[in-house]
């Protein structure tokens, strides 16, 4: 009987040592950690607000200071600051408004949505060409669902009425009331006034009626009655007054 030769047993793959497996695992974790750190850094970098860029070599100290606190600045061909807005309003503090004092060519200042107080408005002096000033709470948008009311008292209006060149003034979404409005007739050149969302009532009608230079007056969400609106329209026949007579509770549009 022929004997069948036995086949050699297949060799089992040698298992790597536990030390090698541990080293591989630690290396993978380290790589993952580095990737996570890089990812977080990229996310933070991408989410930083884009600030206006200065031309290379621009050493203007005023512009540098504005950029540092996050203001957005518009300048004319002569490199003079004419427009200041606040793309990140919650970063602005009262002391930052000191940078605005004495800008001779500033025509537009938009501070809507900032959480400044009366102290900040006291810095708005020495602005001989200012024409548009927007202060007060922020407006509701898809990206900013929270509505902020600015923390002003009626005394905050005092430095503003000294800005005799103003043509557009927004005090919308503030707690200003009738006492503040009594001073507004001093602004003889004012053409557009936003008072929507304030505490203004019929007690302000006499003061508002004196503002014959007004072309537009926004009074939505105030305490002025329909009867008061009717009287005001009689006193200011050439002024566009909102809300309309047939819609006294009409929601307001944000000032542009």
From TrEMBL:
Pfam families reported in the protein's UniProt record: LRR_6
Keyword annotations from UniProtKB, A to Z: Membrane, Transmembrane, Transmembrane helix
InterPro entries per the UniProt record, alphabetical: Leu-rich_rpt (IPR001611), LRR_dom_sf (IPR032675), Zyg-11_UBL_adapter (IPR051341)
Source organism, top-level taxon: Bacteria
Annotated TM spans: 21-43
Name of the featured protein: Leucine-rich repeat domain-containing protein
Source species of the chain: Bremerella cremea
């Amino acid at each position: 009987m022929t004997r069948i030769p036995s086949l050699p047993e297949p060799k089992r793959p040698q298992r790597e040592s536990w030390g090698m497996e541990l080293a591989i695992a630690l290396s993978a974790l380290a790589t993952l950690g580095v990737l996570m750190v890089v990812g977080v850094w990229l996310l933070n970098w991408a989410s930083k607000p884009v600030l206006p860029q200065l031309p290379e070599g621009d050493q203007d100290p005023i512009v540098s200071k504005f950029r540092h606190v996050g203001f957005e600045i518009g300048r004319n061909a002569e490199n003079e600051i004419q427009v200041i807005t606040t793309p990140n309003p919650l970063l602005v503090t009262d002391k930052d408004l000191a940078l605005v004092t004495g800008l001779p060519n500033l025509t537009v200042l938009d501070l809507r949505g900032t959480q400044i107080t009366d102290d900040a408005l006291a810095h708005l002096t020495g602005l001989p060409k200012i024409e548009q000033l927007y202060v007060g709470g922020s407006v509701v948008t898809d990206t900013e669902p929270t509505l902020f009311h600015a923390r002003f008292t009626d005394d905050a209006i005092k430095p503003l009425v000294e800005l005799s060149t103003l043509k557009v003034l927004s005090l919308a979404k503030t707690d200003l009331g009738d006492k503040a409005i009594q001073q507004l007739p001093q602004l003889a050149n004012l053409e557009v006034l936003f008072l929507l969302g304030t505490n203004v009532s019929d007690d302000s009608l006499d003061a508002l009626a004196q503002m014959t230079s007004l072309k537009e007056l926004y009074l939505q969400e105030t305490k002025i009655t329909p009867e008061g609106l009717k009287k005001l329209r009689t006193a200011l026949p050439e002024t566009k007054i909102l809300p309309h007579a047939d819609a006294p509770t009409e929601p307001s549009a944000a000032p542009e």
